[in-house]
Structure formats: structure tokens, C-alpha cells
């Protein structure tokens, strides 16, 4: 008799009752069930015309076929991924796999025709970033480094600045500190990398710094005094030459103090966090908002959210946070809004989300930065239900990437 | 109407995509509408059902360990819907799960099962008698009212209504047999 208790059986009885296909016995059974007041009310509720009509229109909005295709696609993709994992491919090959997925799947997803054309034209015009920067000398002179490749940019009594294939290089001219030992006022230079740019600089002490897009680094033409101090806004990777003099990277949020080591710092004013990832050696982080300073060991990443007072430290694969300087976007379970913030700095575009829900989607993957933007976007739209269009914003003449639900 | 579950599960375990499609086709709307009761968002409901169906495919080898596939699907969708709500941190009461008593859960199932049966039945009827049937049986109008409204005779209303009911009765008889045949046909394909 337990069959009578199941909701499936009850719904069959209700169906038969509504369609008047119910037998005498079944009707008695249903009436017994309906003796309970709440059941009776429930019966009349779901048999109502308006309720059924509502359900009909909900059915129509279900995108049944599209969802089915998507499931099949995911099943297929998972088969691929399994095969790939077995081969233990390195990162670059992963990138290649994404491209294969991309070509295999482009015809599957559908965008409306017009949008596709506008977007395709826009994609042609959106160029990935490349090596460019401007240098501001201590006297205020601004030099476009892209226009002065392989040139001696400036020389003074303290330093010689060469613009080489490997970026800007500072060489100290006078080998020793001035004999009279009167500390001279430090001459500061600022290297500014625009959105869509990237640049490398070798500082007077031999320390190398890679500057990511939308970043500026201020440093003296030579490091005198007890400490080597630079100021950073944006993101940079440092390989600091070992010395007894502390090397300090000052940012708006926190300072990083090291002796000699390799680490990444991301301190964009318009990001909601500061972060530093240590590859080698040891660094100390301190911040005005955080009373304690923390020490990072290799393979650790510290995050300080702008509204927070403590550093959040986690073990990471440092490659993820340093891949940008090798010309790669590398994301691991990264939120889409964070991904696109970085992407927009490289391709110089604006990003708009149709729905906040989309921002929370996370992705893992590697994309080469010298590819056109659709390379990355298709990877995203193919693996999830996110679609995109790109249009030109007439007011600021920038391209606008809009993410929508598929 | 109702699937021959033993067959579907058997074929699903073999990795038969047709069996998966059958399962998907017969459950999609129900599960979607069921999830919608909780998440109140079309997009989220879609995703919940999508993920649940994907999980069924991935766990297909263990399916016969799940005694009642229907209830398993509903439970999975319910849990996934809760997870979604938690993730969204929607302002729903914190003890949402205890609020959703067994009674609620079963009511939702009854509602979605009944609606799917009804909507499928209506769609299966020829257009003419569907209208008459809807007005008589679902709206509960009198023959005279239906006749006036559709500008047909009362006798026509009566005969169309009976015809609709006869057709639906036939379907009830045939449904199991029909799907059994269909299963075999698809497997050979």
C-alpha cells in the first residue's frame, strides 16, 4: 500500500481527476487523500487554469535544446581533458589544447548574426599589448621609449641610461660615492607603462624589474644611502640583486622589504586588494593598516584587501602570478571579474557585466598574451554559458566588451 | 508519460547516449520548474538542472544503487538549488533547509509531476478538441458557456470533450508499451 503514499502516485491521480479519466477506485483514493484540508487546497491550487498557464510559459523559457547541447558538449570536453591529463602536459601545451577546443567548438555556439559581425570587426581592431613605456627623467623630460629603441637615452654625472632590447638599463658612471661624501639629492626617474604595455628595466644596482600594463615605477638614478627604495603603482616582478642594503618597494597599501630575492607585487589603485607572491628568498611585508609585519617564504602569496587589516597568506603555485611576464595569462580558479580586469589592461578595453552573477564564475587556464582577445573570450564562452559582444563606445572611442548570459 | 526506468538505467550504464537523452527529455521541464520554486531565477534553474543531469551521466555506473531514480533526481536538484541560494546569500531564512519540510518537498514534486502530465496531455490533443477540453475540464465551464464562447453547438462541445478524454485514456493504456518499443528501437539504432 506504500505506493499510494508516493507523490508520483498522487500526481497521477490528480492528473486523471482533472482530465476526467479517473476510475471509481482511484477517485475514492484521491478523495481520501483530499480529506486533509491542506491537500484539498493544494489540489485546487495546482489544477487552476492560471497556474497551469504560468507553468506552460515557464516551460517555454527553459531552453531545453540548448541546455542539452551544452551538457553533451561538456561530456565531450571532459573526455578530451582526461586524455590530456594523462600526458601531463606543461603549461604551454595546455594553451594549445584550449586552441584546439576553440576550433573544434566555434561552430557550436551561436550568437546573433549582427552582433557577430560587429564583434568580429572589433576583434580585428583590438590589438594585444606590446612593449611600450615612457620614461620621465628627474628634470621632467618625457621620453617615449618605443620611439627610441637601442639608444642612449640620457647620461648624467651619475648614470647612463640605455634603451636596449631587454628594456631600460641603468649603468652607474662614477664608480664610487663622491669623495667629499656629501650626500647628493637623489635624482628620481619614473618609468610609466601604459594600458596595453609592458616593459623591463635594470636598475642601477642590477636589480631587474618587469612592469606590467598600467604600472609606474619610481626609482633613483643611483642608490645612495642605507636603503634602496622604489615606489610602485600597478604590478611588477622583481629580481633583486643581493646586497646588504635593504631593497624596499613602497606601494599605496604596503611596503615590501627584501635583501635579495624574486617576487611579484600587484598594487593597482583600482583593484580591491594588494598582493605579493614570493618566488625565491624572503620578503617582509608591512602596511600602515596592518600593525604586524609578516614574513613570506617561497611559494607563498599574501593578500591584503583594502578594507582589511591583516595579510592573508596562502601557499600558491607562483607561476600563476608571474606568468604575465613570460607573455601568458595564467588563471587558476580565478573569478571572471578579476580575469577581465587584467585582460582589459592588456587589450585596452572596457568591460561591462550584464549580471553580477557572471562575475563570480571562475576559470582555470593559460592563454598567450600576444593572441587576439577572442582567443581568450572564446575559451570562456565555450566552457560556460557566457556570451560576449564587443562594440565601440562612441563617447570615449574605446572598445567595450559586454558579457551576457548565453 | 512514464519511462521504463529499468531499461533506461541499464542502457545508461552502458554509456548509451540515447538513454541519457530520454532521461533528459522526460525530466528536464519538471526539474527545471521544481528548481525554479526554490531559486526563482530562470538562469539559475537552468544551471542547476544542467549540472544535475551532468552528474547523473558521470555517476551512471552507480545508478542501480540508487533505488528510486526519480526521487534521487528531485533530491539532487533540491540540494543544488539550496547550494545556489547559499552561494548567492539571498536573504532567505538561515535554516532554509529545515523550513523546507518533507511536506513541502513532496508538494513540489506532486505539483511538477502533475503539471508535466497535464501539459504533455494538452499538447498531444488535436487543436480543436484541446480547446474544448481545456475549457470544460480545466476552466470548469459549462457546456453552454463553451458552446457560446466558441460559437459551436452544445453537441459538438460534448463530442469533442468525450473525444479528448477517450484519447487521453488511450494514452494512459499505451504509454508503457509505447516506451518499451521506443527503447528497443533506439538501442538498435
TrEMBL record, chain A:
Protein FecR C-terminal domain boundaries: 328-394
InterPro entries assigned: FecR, FecR_C, Ferrdict_sens_TM
Record Pfam families: FecR, FecR_C
Keyword Lipid metabolism carried by entry: no
Transmembrane annotation, as ranges: 91-109
Domain called FecR protein: residue spans: 190-284
UniProt entry keywords in alphabetical sequence: Membrane, Transmembrane, Transmembrane helix
The keyword Membrane appears for this protein: yes
UniProt feature coiled coil, ranges: none
Example of a GO MF term: sigma factor antagonist activity
Protein's recorded name: FecR family protein
Species of provenance: Snuella sedimenti
Automatic annotation (TrEMBL), chain B:
InterPro entries: RNA_pol_sigma-70-like, RNA_pol_sigma-70_dom, RNA_pol_sigma70_bacteroid, RNA_pol_sigma70_r2, RNA_pol_sigma70_r4_t2, RNA_pol_sigma_r2, RNA_pol_sigma_r3/r4-like, WH-like_DNA-bd_sf
Residue span(s) of domain RNA polymerase sigma-70 region: 23-90
Single Gene Ontology MF annotation: DNA binding
Keyword Membrane set for record: no
Gene3D superfamilies: 1.10.1740.10, Winged helix-like DNA-binding domain superfamily/Winged helix DNA-binding domain
Domain of life: Bacteria
Residue span, RNA polymerase sigma factor 70 region 4 type domain: 117-166
Family classification: Belongs to the sigma-70 factor family. ECF subfamily.
UniProt cross-references to PANTHER family, sorted A to Z: RNA POLYMERASE ECF-TYPE SIGMA FACTO, RNA POLYMERASE SIGMA-70 FACTOR ECF SUBFAMILY
UniProt protein name: RNA polymerase sigma-70 factor
